[in-house]
UniProtKB/TrEMBL annotation:
Domain of life of the native organism: Eukaryota
Region annotated Disordered, chain positions: 317-347
Keyword line: Leucine-rich repeat, Repeat
UniProt source species: Champsocephalus esox (pike icefish)
Stored SUPFAM superfamilies: RNI-like (SSF52047)
Name of this chain's protein: Leucine-rich repeat-containing protein 2
One Pfam family of this chain: LRR_1
Secretion signal span: none
Length: 378
């Protein structure tokens, strides 16, 4: 370059360039979303499914084919007896279509399930199934997905396409994370993730679950309340029990519709004053052993049932030993939790729920409740 030659260098505001690119990226994502919706609404997937079904039927013998047809027809016409008790809160009996699977003999979902996309409820529990099927996104009419006490290690991103989903229960499985796509299920009203042991956070995208009424993340490894939970404005029940919480955020009063709050079995030493600002709050359950600072308006408010659960002395003395044993077995637990351990955890949770339900009808509650373990040798 010759000396003395002038070079014009364009100068521009970096924020303007960034703004232009953000607009382009937004338009590109919007175009991708429209294209994905067009593909999903297309008849091609249904046509492909029908052809796959015909190919599968061709591979069957006459007897097996008759059994399959009989199974599908029966699923369309029959209703399950166990669902009759929930007739008041579910759809009319004629439109209830439920798939049930139970027992350790099941290692995978039956192949015939992929043709039953008309189903509205799945109830799968106590199996050795470790993952959900690839065709899950085809079940667009699914409103209830109950899959507790299996060995499921992850939820696929396709679960976000189940936009009609209202209840999701993945308790006592092997989850270590939740896909952000679950936030697309904006009609979800009940989410249960109890007892996955390695679950320690929830994606921020779940903040879009504005209709969620019931969130249960008990018996996990949460050290703080997920940010998304504080943005679920319709939440009425929040179960954070049996985690590793050291404190609570000062903006919990954002949950303006909260009625029931479970905090027992954590490392809390105080409760924030912001809880007194939640006018809808009717019940708080805490562990009374370590709490040393509680707002008077909480524990003395006649409108709030403030329940303290205390361990007995024998339990307190053995607490350290149990924690050491849990740390040693943590790796094995992650790989394959023992069946008796799952039963023990779920049994204790069921007992606490029954006890608390019995207190709802009382005018007053005990100052504290001590859990006593009794074993009988027959």
């Amino acid at each position: 370059m010759a000396l003395g030659r002038k070079v014009d260098v364009p100068v521009s505001d970096v924020s303007l360039i960034r703004g232009m690119w953000e607009v382009r990226v937004k338009k590109h994502r919007h175009t991708q979303k429209k294209e994905q919706e067009r593909i999903e609404q297309s008849a091609l997937p249904k046509i492909d499914q029908q052809w796959q079904y015909r190919i599968y039927c061709k591979s069957l013998q006459t007897k097996e084919l008759n059994l399959l047809h009989h199974y599908l027809e029966r699923s369309l016409t029959e209703t399950q007896p166990c669902a009759e008790a929930e007739q008041d809160r579910r759809e009319p009996e004629q439109s209830r279509l439920i798939f049930q699977l139970d027992g350790e003999q099941w290692m995978d979902f039956p192949r015939e399930l992929q043709w039953m996309t008309y189903l509205k409820e799945w109830h799968v529990r106590g199996t050795r199934i470790c993952r959900l099927p690839e065709y899950l996104a085809l079940f667009t009419q699914l409103s209830v997905l109950q899959i507790p006490k299996n060995t499921i290690a992850e939820l696929p991103p396709e679960i976000g396409k189940l936009t009609g989903l209202r209840e999701l229960n993945v308790s006592y499985n092997h989850l270590s994370q939740v896909p952000p796509e679950l936030g697309d299920c904006e009609n979800l009203k009940r989410l249960e993730l109890t007892g996955n042991h390695n679950l320690s956070e929830l994606p921020f995208e779940l903040s879009s679950l504005k209709q969620l009424l019931h969130l249960d993340i008990a018996e996990n490894c949460f050290r703080s309340i997920p940010i998304c939970a504080l943005r679920m404005s319709a939440l009425q029940l929040l179960d954070l029990s049996h985690n590793r919480l050291g404190d609570l955020p000062q903006d919990m009063d954002r949950l303006e519709q909260l009625v029931t709050l479970f905090l027992h079995k954590n490392n809390l030493t105080y409760l924030p004053h912001c809880l007194t600002k939640i006018s809808t709050l009717k019940m708080i359950v805490v562990s009374g052993d370590d709490l040393n600072s509680i707002p008077t308006r909480l524990c003395r408010n006649p409108e709030i049932k403030f329940i303290r659960l205390c361990d007995n002395r024998a339990t307190a003395e053995n607490k350290k030993k149990e924690e050491e044993e849990e740390q040693k077995k943590e790796k094995n637990r992650w790989r394959e939790p023992r069946e008796e351990e799952v039963k023990k955890d779920s049994g204790e949770k069921e007992f606490i729920e029954l006890y608390l339900n019995s207190l709802k009808d009382r005018e007053t509650v005990p100052e504290s409740t001590t859990k006593v373990s009794i074993s009988c040798l027959l």
